[in-house]
Design goal:
Layout: E1 2-6, E2 16-23, E3 26-34, H1 51-56, H2 64-79, H3 100-126, H4 165-193, E4 202-203, E5 206-207, H5 213-248, H6 255-263, E6 288-290, E7 293-295, E8 301-309, E9 316-321, H7 325-335, E10 336-339, E11 359-360, E12 383-388, E13 391-393, H8 399-405, E14 432-433, E15 436-437, H9 444-451, H10 465-472, H11 480-499, E16 502-503, E17 508-509, E18 512-515, E19 518-522, H12 525-532, E20 549-557, E21 560-569, E22 572-579, H13 581-585, H14 605-610, H15 623-631, H16 636-639
Antiparallel strand pairs: 1-2, 2-3, 4-5, 6-8, 7-8, 8-9, 10-11, 10-12, 12-13, 14-15, 16-17, 18-19, 20-21, 21-22
Helix pairs in contact: 3-4, 3-11, 3-12, 4-5, 5-11, 5-12, 11-12
Length: 641
């Protein structure tokens, strides 16, 4: 057995490393460790409640909007705008809520951030681990050639189309185009946020976006026009490329998909005869959690429901909207704890959960305090856990988790074509056209490249052959490729929720009409609903209570479930705690599982995803560990807040 360390993990946000026990070329045990505690929670104590919205956006440079939004929900809860973890519209007489216009603005700003994050993750963080960059800085050094599919190597001079080959060229072009799409999402969000990524619009009670109705409608029109370009990129280039990627790396996909790849001679990384044990690298826990998010002001229903799913079981939804938010509060209060048994923080001796002094409810923590040196502690991340029955479970959060919990992505081998179809939206089946993929839904250049790869041994019309068989046969499971696919498919859902469903016949999103005398204004999606209430208020004022009050905000960030817990006393913050997506995914082991070598229930999601994966060593050791970690899109700056 060899003990190795892969540190730092590259192309992520922040400083993450992993210590691995390797036996016979496979990982037996993994310890993920985040470095450098920062103390954001502690220096919020004593400040004005609304200060938290500004300060927490500085926890991270890549996901400030989700922190600002979640902090806004938390401050809303203690100032009396909500009774739960998400603030809904004031459409009823319960005295709670913020104006519908404010809810729409919050959704649009956060939605634009999601699109930015999802595209950035795939093209600029994850994809370079599968597509060899040009032989120049900053692309070099890169992995040994053997780790890249021959069609995705930069030195493929013998391939059709010259150096790199046509698929390599197409992917590099998309990489560059995605930089523009990233900028466009910031421009769209900044129309309502004031600036991006650090916003100026978020405040308890609503938003600061108080425009005239005509000016607000003009903003909605511009937002729509910007996201139409982004949406067409997602529909026609981003999603098809991600769907096809697994065909070139079937060992990183689940066994059902790898079997299809093997049957049509897409065998890179697979043995002959096919061995299912080679596949599913990065499968992880199979436990998923989401808080839910994006409330609809008209219905007070969440576009993304909150709930959880344990491995092998059915999903349990605990929050679908305002009507069951009380149940969500009870569930979180009873079931969420953070463990510090292996984290570099002092033990919570006065909480005593689960018969040990390492458990603590975030709402009960006043200050986070680092511990002295302790041989049992190896990370600056805490270990959030969710209680089901008498047991506490590590959970995976993020786009994959949201898709699974909400039933859009089955992980039991079910065909994606039968599950990923959402009423009124362009879905998975829209890419299928009789016996070929529909070229109206695939960029012409990409379609031509995929059709002309010389792989097509199965006769089909147009863009077909092997790639058609692969994409139309895709099934959901647990693997790195499933995690990447789910993120791209969520981007496909969100862009349509924002600006209306995509119509492949007319090549348009949603509908447009005349509002406030302005033509071609969106009338569908969240932006259309916002334009319809352009003349409404965007803010409700309430005084800051001087009594002691506690509450929390919880919603979805691009990387997963995010919660902020706050207590105020005498009008000032007296306690603040954040439970962050990567704190879930990259958490160290907990007090139940014990130290290295102990049972599954002790590991965090990323640790478990690395266990069992190959570790080839050789010219570029640790490639598999890098690919596993990158598939979670970790943000260590957030996790060590």
């Amino acid at each position: 057995m060899a003990f190795v360390e892969v540190d730092p993990i590259s192309r992520i946000e922040g400083h993450l490393g992993v210590k691995l026990d390797v036996n016979g070329g496979f990982v037996d045990e993994a310890d993920t460790h985040g470095n450098l505690w920062r103390g954001f929670e502690n220096f919020l104590i004593g400040r004005e409640p609304n200060d938290a919205i500004t300060f927490t956006q500085r926890i991270c440079g890549v996901c400030p909007v989700p922190h600002g939004m979640t902090s806004t929900y938390a401050i809303d809860s203690v100032l009396g705008y909500s009774t739960g973890h998400i603030t809904f519209s004031d459409v009823d007489a319960d005295g709670k809520g913020v104006p519908a216009k404010a809810v729409h603005v919050r959704n649009m700003v956060l939605g634009a951030e999601f699109l930015m994050s999802h595209m950035t993750h795939f093209y600029h963080l994850a994809a370079p681990s599968y597509v060899q960059g040009p032989n120049m800085a900053p692309w070099t050094p890169y992995f040994d050639d053997s780790y890249y599919h021959p069609l995705l190597r930069s030195n493929g001079a013998a391939l059709p189309g010259g150096p790199g080959g046509p698929l390599w060229d197409a992917v590099i072009v998309q990489y560059v185009k995605a930089l523009r799409m990233r900028r466009l999402t910031f421009e769209a969000g900044a129309l309502f946020a004031g600036r991006m990524p650090m916003t100026s619009a978020l405040v308890s009670g609503g938003v600061t976006t108080q425009d005239s109705s005509v000016f607000f409608v003009e903003k909605c029109k511009k937002f729509y026009n910007i996201l139409v370009e982004v949406g067409k990129f997602i529909v026609k280039e981003h999603v098809p490329l991600v769907l096809a990627l697994g065909a070139l790396y079937p060992a990183y996909d689940n066994a059902a998909n790898a079997a299809v790849a093997h049957s049509v001679d897409l065998k890179f990384g697979l043995s002959t005869p096919f061995d299912p044990a080679e596949t599913g690298i990065g499968a992880g826990l199979g436990n998923f959690l989401a808080w839910g998010g994006f409330p609809d002001p008209a219905t007070n229903v969440l576009a993304i429901a909150g709930g959880y799913k344990l491995s092998g079981g059915a999903a349990t939804l605990f929050c679908t909207g305002k009507s069951d938010v009380a149940g969500a509060i009870t569930a979180v209060g009873a079931n969420l704890v953070e463990d510090t048994a292996r984290s570099r923080y002092v033990a919570a001796t006065d909480w005593g959960y689960n018969g040990t002094d390492s458990w603590a409810k975030p709402s009960a923590v006043t200050r986070t305090e680092p511990s002295r040196d302790d041989a049992n502690k190896y990370s600056w991340l805490k270990a959030p856990r969710w209680k089901v029955g008498a047991s506490y479970y590590a959970m995976e959060v993020g786009p994959f988790a949201r898709m699974v919990v909400n039933g859009f992505y089955k992980v039991d081998g079910t065909a994606l074509a039968s599950t990923f179809n959402i009423a009124g939206l362009h879905g998975y089946l829209d890419y299928v056209n009789i016996d070929a993929l529909d070229t109206r839904c695939v960029d012409a250049g990409l379609a031509g490249v995929l059709a002309g790869l010389g792989l097509a041994t199965v006769e089909a019309n147009g863009y077909g052959g092997i790639i058609y068989v692969w994409v139309t046969s895709l099934a959901g499971g647990l693997s790195i490729m499933d995690r990447l696919r789910a993120r791209a498919l969520e981007a496909l859902v969100l862009v349509q929720l924002l600006i209306g469903g995509y119509n492949k016949v007319t090549d348009t999103f949603g509908t447009v009409g005349t509002v406030e005398g302005i033509t071609n204004v969106p009338t569908a999606g969240w932006v259309g609903a916002a334009a319809a209430v352009a003349g409404g208020a965007s803010y409700i004022s309430k005084p800051v209570p001087l009594t002691t009050k506690s509450g929390y905000g919880a919603t979805e960030a691009p990387r997963g479930a995010l919660a902020h817990f706050v207590t105020i006393a005498s009008g000032k913050i007296s306690a603040y705690q954040c439970v962050v997506p990567t704190t879930w995914n990259a958490s160290p082991k907990d007090g139940m599982g014990g130290l290295r070598g102990d049972a599954l229930n002790g590991r965090g999601a990323m640790e478990q995803a690395m266990v069992g994966s190959p570790y080839a060593g050789g010219a570029t050791p640790g490639v598999e560990a890098l690919r596993v970690a990158q598939s979670f899109d970790p943000c260590i700056a957030c996790a060590v807040h």
